[in-house]
Amino acid sequence: MNRKSFLQSIALISGSAFISIKSNALGQLQRNGVLTGRVSSEGKGIANAVISDGFSTVKTDADGKYTISTNEKAQFVFLSTPAGYDFKVDGNIAKQYESLGARNEYNFTLKKLKKNDDNHRFIIWADPQVKNKKDVADMMATAVPDVQALVQEMGANTLVHGICVGDIVWDNLPLYEDYNVAVAQMGIPFFQALGNHDMDYRQGGDETSDKTFKQYFGPTYYSFNRGKAHYIVLDDVRYLGKEREYDGHISEEQLAWMEKDLAFVPKDNLVIINLHIPVHNAVKNKEDFYKILKKFTNVHVMSGHTHYNKNVIQNGVFEHNHGTVCGAWWTGPICADGTPRGYGVYEVKGTKLGWYYKSTGLPKKHQISLDIETLTNQKRIIANVWNYDPEWKVECFLDGKSVPIEKQIGFDPESVRLYLGDKLPLGRTFAEPSRTDHIFMAHCDPAVKNVKVVVTDRFGEKYEILKSS
Predict the structure, then answer these.
(1) Which residue, of 196, 224, 347, 373, is most buried by count of CB atoms within 10 Å of its CB?
(2) 335 with 425, same domain?
(3) Same domain, 166 and 191
(4) Which tens digits make up the pLDDT trace of 424-458?
(5) Cα 450–chain centre separation
(6) What is the pLDDT of residues 321-353, one digit of tens each?
(7) What are phi and psi of 253, to 5 degrees?
(8) Which DSSP string corresponds to 9-66?
(9) How many domains does the chain have?
(10) Are residues 271 and 402 in the same domain?
(11) Domain limits at 393?
């Protein structure tokens, strides 16, 4: 080899080594670098804003600046939007995060709200679960205009946002695009949680199952604030790596992050945790979850997944397991337990939370269904009070006379008529009625003419239904 060739070879080797070192350095920066940035509004830094990479959490200084060392697994840096500021959105999809790349500086610019946000509202969508374009058309024709009308009724000055607690689609991930169109049309900021039908299957284990979801919606767990309410979104669906097998489990990484995140939250604040699979009966490590929340006395969990409606208080935590936007998979107007397809509507006043269930296409006063069955020598009265909890009062009047009515576990009669059997419902015959514990039953003489059921919710609101037998 002559001298010229030797020098050229050295140059090539050196250049390759430099490129390799540089690429590795950039890779390390993405996975384990030190990030800096600033959170500001109108040029002024916002102090005490919380920044996280999903593993560590830090607060901004007096000038809104932060420094955070990122975990090698981190894919995002996200802001827990502080109270008093508007949510950053893209087409109404919440976007309070940045995907980590070659940069080591990520700034967040916020817009200050024009009014105090201690009082605000939010809605919970559970399981829109669209499988095809027909389902999308049904969603756009029913659920979307219902929310539009509700938001208009609330008034232009009302602060309101939405949270979808999973199963946005039904294994057909390109339909995320259609969901995003729906969100854009509803006109309010929307946050998303991952459901078991929102995952990439057969591409590895749990660590790769959320790839597409992240491309559309960012991190699968994060937090934000509005007024004195602190919101957390979690991923409690653990993909087991085989076909569509999964279980309810909150990863140790998420629990560790949640504990750090809550360390910045005043103990008397309202804490609202949003996830897909209900915690009270289906998350395997729920005791670890509840343990982190022991210091807080005002915690509500919002879940979906079951296609029925149920309120449960466990370990001092109030869980609202919601009926679905899709009802029984877009086959009929009610869920498997007789709950109308719809969504939860919530109102925050300081640290107090109020709520009701909104049936799609029906007024707020629609909170009960009533069925009267004629038996051999008597009549059976079956009332379904789908948003019942132990603070509710249920009364029955027969021809104006008050009679006892008992809480039972049973089937909703309309659900039986619509869904029972291997030929019903048409198109998706797997849907079947499910037993529920919010059925109330009484028996009466066949001569009774008028049956009225009156329910009073925990907030003193009365709803009634009257039928002639």
Answers:
(1) 224
(2) no
(3) yes
(4) 999 999 999 999 999 999 999 999 999 999 999 99
(5) 41
(6) 999 999 999 999 999 999 999 999 999 999 999
(7) -60, -45
(8) HHHHHHHHHHHHHHHHHHHHHHHH-EEEEEEEETTEE-TT-EEESSS-EEE--TTSEE
(9) 3
(10) no
(11) 369-468
